[in-house]
Write a structure and sequence with these properties.
The complex is a heterodimer of chains A (about 350) and B (about 300). With about 350 residues, chain A is of the alpha+beta class. Chain A has helices spanning about 45-50, 95, 100-105, 110-120, 135-150, 165-185, 195-200, 220-225, 230-235, 245-250; strands at about 5-15, 15-25, 30-35, 60-65, 65, 80, 155-160, 185-190, 205-210, 210-215, 240, 255-260, 265, 275-290, 290-300, 305-310, 325-330, 335. In chain A, β7 (about 155-160), α6 (about 165-185) and β8 (about 185-190) form a beta-alpha-beta unit. In chain A, α4 (about 110-120) crosses α5 (about 135-150). Chain B has helices spanning about 1-10, 10-40, 60-65, 70-105, 105-115, 125-135, 140-145, 150-160, 170-195, 200-210, 215-240, 245-250, 255-265, 270-295, and strands spanning about 45, 55. In chain B, a hairpin with a 6-residue loop joins β1 and β2 (about 55). The radius of gyration of chain B is 24 Å and the shape is globular. In chain B, about 35% of the residues are buried. The chains are: A alpha+beta (about 350), B mainly alpha (about 300). The interface of A and B includes residues 52, 53, 83, 84 and 100 of A.
Chain lengths: ~350, ~300
């Protein structure tokens, strides 16, 4: 079986900046693939390289096993949902959705029929005659989705599609997109800077930083076993322990990560056993999040640890400034590759 | 001072009124007032014997404008020139503006803007007379064409009835060239402004959905540039309709509306006829705007 998308050593350079730096990756057909990273990490450039809006300076891009490196966007079998939706303001919603079949010379009855079906699919059946300006953000998002799907592409590219929506709508659309992808069975490539979005929707996630992929894994593996300090911090903001402190806690100089929710707070005098690591600090801050609270604890050596603790009465007696003992199981300390810094 | 500021801050309507009254007075009396005084003259007529204005409302002057064959000729000649100039300006400006906005580097774009506006900083009269020399029988253009062996082609062009003449500077073709040169910036600038407002992502979306560049231009770029095209064409159209210097310096001897207005209010002293002729471009522009609106030129605004 050939891969839906393949990057072979792809680089894209803007002046001095290596926006994409020798990236190789493979996306399987039918996969929900997320590209996650902070802004400027190269994830959007990668998406644009797949769509054909950018041409790599070196390396090659393959779609369904065919080299499309030099193909313009209009011959590639992929479609894009743009961050700003990019709906044509001078056309009705129906004409927007029908744009693909129309420029390909389909007959009017056919494209009208197809476009109505697509609008029904995104539950906007009655909105065909409106102008994009008359729709809400969520509705425009759906129109943009319908317009991209009408060509029945093998790959759908989504560039931060939920970024402009409010929280509730975003959560609904996450579920809807996931269902749609399952139903249609086509490959989705989803660019986001929101790790929650990437973890909850994707089959596999590529974490980008400085134009390179730091780690490519399933959400579970990414969360439980981050390979580098960057991934550990960016995905689920784990505590990263390095240098002297790492040496003192684990007995080895290699850096490791501890998830905030794996840390327990105890009285400073509580005894530790061999299966745990522990250290002592002062409570610097507490944020209440309902189901749990996030504690910031400053160690004597200056590092700040975050601990997410289920909000039970047992922790209630620690006030800001109180001395506490942080404790976690030895198994919860995930060793990181030492090569990465930032 | 502070008390006054507070007083005005609490009364925004008064504040706005104070700011607006002086310009509105200027606009209302000096600008519109004088225009309507002129237009009001058109409903009077002139006494054939005494050459004095008869202050009795009549449509006789208008009748004279639209029924006398010579006057109708003038209107049609001016109108055809304005339409031709507008079409030519649009055809030349569209690729230039598109290049400036989409493809030029910021540096080149700035150079283009300066290049487009530079001629507008120079005296209009100097430019017109310069063009008369350029287009003259032994002028630089005919010399250039002779040198590259195209002299015969120019002669053949000048023999075409209607647009030709003894030389470019004495033909409607020459006048057309000067008009296009003069008004081109007025087409390029609004067009570039309109194209600049079209987000890059719309063009990418079009290509993404399978449209070839020519299709994208026709279905996305052009419709979204229409407001700019409409604005620019109002300039080129109305400036050509009203101009009297270019037709009197360059081109064939036929009269244009502007020349007629100039002559009637000056030498002939027929203010009512001059006023009635001034109404013609206004009416033509209104018809043009109505047609443009019907064609959807302002829908994307």
């Amino acid at each position: 079986m050939t891969a839906a998308i393949e990057f072979r050593d792809v680089s894209r350079v803007y002046g001095e900046v290596r926006a994409v730096d020798r990236v190789s990756l493979t996306v399987q057909a039918g996969e929900f693939f997320a590209m996650l990273g902070p802004s400027g990490s190269g994830k959007t450039t990668c998406l644009r390289l797949i769509a054909g809006f950018e041409t790599p300076d070196s390396g090659s891009v393959l779609l369904n096993g065919r080299d499309v490196t030099d193909d313009p966007p209009y011959v590639r079998d992929v479609n894009t949902v743009f961050q700003d939706y990019a709906l044509f303001p001078h056309m009705s919603v129906l004409e927007n959705v029908a744009y693909g079949p129309r420029v390909r010379g389909q007959r009017k009855e056919d494209w009208q029929q197809r476009a109505r079906e697509m609008l029904d699919l995104v539950q906007l059946g009655n909105f065909g005659d409106r102008r994009p300006a008359q729709l809400s953000g969520g509705q425009r998002q759906r129109v943009s989705l319908a317009r991209a799907l009408i060509n029945q592409p093998r790959v759908l590219l989504l560039d931060e599609p939920l970024g402009a929506l409010d929280l509730k709508l975003r959560e609904e659309m996450q579920i809807e997109l996931k269902n749609l992808q399952r139903r249609l069975g086509i490959t989705f490539v989803f660019v986001t800077h929101d790790q929650g979005e990437a973890l909850s929707m994707a089959d596999r996630v590529a974490v980008f930083n400085h134009g390179k992929i730091e780690q490519l894994d399933t959400p579970r593996a990414l969360y439980a076993r981050p390979a580098t300090a960057f991934v550990a911090r960016f995905v689920g903001s784990a505590n990263v322990v390095t240098g002297e402190l790492a040496q003192r806690l684990s007995g080895r100089a290699e850096p490791f990560a501890v998830r905030a929710e794996n840390i327990r707070l105890r009285a400073p005098a509580a005894s530790a056993n061999g299966d745990t690591m522990s250290c002592i600090g002062d409570v610097a801050d507490v944020q209440y999040h309902g189901a749990m609270s996030r504690w910031q604890v400053r160690l004597e050596s200056g590092e700040v640890f975050a601990a997410a603790v289920a909000d039970t009465n047992s922790n209630g007696d620690f006030k800001i400034g109180a001395r506490v003992r942080l404790e976690w199981a030895r198994n919860d300390a995930v060793p990181l590759s030492a090569a990465e810094s930032s | 001072m502070k008390a006054l500021s507070t007083f005005l801050y609490r009364r925004p309507a008064l504040y706005v009124a104070l700011l607006l009254i002086p310009p509105l007075l200027w606009f209302g009396t000096v600008y519109l007032g004088s225009l309507f005084t002129l237009l009001a003259q058109s409903i009077y007529s002139i006494d054939e014997f005494t050459a004095k204005v008869v202050y009795e409302p009549t449509l006789a002057t208008y009748k004279q404008v639209v029924t006398q064959a010579a006057n109708v000729d003038i209107i049609l000649r001016t109108l055809s020139m304005a339409v031709a100039v507008t079409i030519a300006c649009a055809a030349i400006a569209l690729p230039i503006a598109n290049y400036m906005v989409r493809y030029a580097s910021p540096r080149t774009r700035a150079l283009f803007y300066v290049g487009v506006m530079l001629p507008m900083w120079m005296s209009y009269l100097v430019k017109v007379y310069a063009w008369r020399l350029i287009l003259a029988k032994q002028g630089i253009l005919s010399w250039l064409l002779d040198t590259v062996g195209l002299g015969a082609a120019l002669d053949a062009l000048l023999r075409v009835p209607g647009i030709g003449g003894p030389s470019l500077s004495a033909s409607y073709l020459g006048m057309f060239i000067v008009f296009v040169y003069m008004w081109l910036p007025f087409m390029i600038l609004p067009l570039a402004a309109a194209l600049e407002k079209v987000p890059e992502s719309l063009l990418q979306a079009s290509a993404d959905l399978g449209a070839r560049p020519a299709q994208t231009f026709r279905t996305v770029t052009l419709p979204l540039a229409l407001p700019g095209l409409a604005a620019g064409s109002v300039f080129t159209f109305s400036l050509t309709l009203g101009d009297y210097i270019i037709p009197s310096v360059v081109g064939a001897p036929g009269y244009f509306i502007g020349m007629m207005v100039y002559q009637q209010q000056g030498t002939a002293g027929n203010i009512p006829l001059a006023a009635a002729f001034s109404v013609v471009p206004i009416v033509l522009i209104m018809i043009y705007l109505t047609l443009a609106k019907r064609a959807g030129a302002f829908d994307a605004l």
